[in-house]
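Obj.: predict assembly geometry.
Materials: sequence records (below).
Method: joint structure prediction, all chains together.
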Amino acid sequence: MIKIEEKLFQNRYRVDEGHPHIHIINPEVCADNCSAQSCTYVCPAGCYVADEKGDITLTTDGCLECGTCRIICNDHHNVAWEYPRGGHGILFKFG
Amino acid sequence: MSENTAAPAKPKGKKRLELDPRLAAYKGIWVFVEMERGQVHQVSWELLGEGRKLADILNVELGAVILGGSNDELAAAARSAFTYGADVAYIVADPVLTDYRNEPYTKAMTDLVNKYQPEILLLGATTLGRDLAGSVATTLLTGLTADCTELAIDPDNRGLLATRPTFGGSLLCTIQTLNYRPQMATIRPRVMAMPDTLPERSGRVISENLQMQEDDIIAKVLQFIPDEAQEQAQLAYADIIVAGGRGMGKAENFRLIWDLAAVLGAEVGGSRPVTHAGWLPADRQVGQSGKTVRPKLYIAAGISGAIQHRVGMESSDVIIAINNDPHAPIFDFATYGIVGDAVQILPVLTDAFRSRLAVNRRAG
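Observations (raw structure tokens):
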């Protein structure tokens, strides 16, 4: 089975080092108040990963900038979502 | 250009060029011995080893070109060059060559080449070598292949086949200089093996003078400033790297990585999740969006080996993977794999290395 990161490797990115464009506003909300943790299921790039304790790790390097995580988090509005700065992020070739 | 008229079909995909008769006089292989502050860069010895093999194939002499300010240092370097396989040492000693400057070095090199006419000229692809090779090649109007990883001799025409990675290593191209001499190449450090020394070997020394005055040289060296970043991560130059990934569990466990690195005299690296979590500074990240490294030994502890990490370290000579998941992709390309918890295995490894190195030090 092909892993998601191998598929993401086919994409072109210019990672904005040190400036992640998405933040989890309050990590405790994810761990304690959110039972669904939908972001870990719907993100098409697998940017959100939950560990055993329920903490969510967000790695924005592979983000496709679709915006799904911002919309799906409508119970808690716990995702501060911005586009990457100009020239950064996913650079679709023959998109 | 002459085609073989006897055979109607052209040999597939190969251009045949007859070497200009004026250039047929060029014979021998030269290696530029890079010296900085009396220290010879190791790549020069690696190249002498490789040059020896090529010279034996072509049945020509291997020359070492040594430029610098002090006669004693050059003579010492020449003696070492002979033990590494050189037959002749071409020495130019002049005060203007004390510190590296492109102008006088280019002049010294091109004068030597024009006088003694070597057919192949090899330099190390260091910052110095890359700078010098470009100006020497354009002054001599000949071909240069930069940053090669493989050298061979074309059996058809005795030409140099220089192979180098291009497009970020996704393609290898083999380049020939068909009709110009010398054939020049810079070679990436640490690609060729260090040759064995033959202590009793010696050779001829040819000394030349540089026809250049200090006043003719535009560039002046005012001051030598040692690299202040030396205390920071030097992953690109490290011989050994110990790297940790998310499998280390938590930030505190990285102490085990640092311990092992201290015992081995190694640098510490990490994967993306680790630098993202702040367990390591970002300049220690290895992989696609971090540094590309090629140490002699890469120890990957708790790293799964995702493609984004793999592209940054897969050209290491030896890769040791420690991971508790036997299906982790890192085991597909690791030289040695240990299935187990890195947090338990690392301290044992550290102890084993420490006691082993202590014995070696006593013995040495």
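Conclusions so far: DSSP finds four helices and six strands in chain A.
To do: check interface contacts against the pulldown list.
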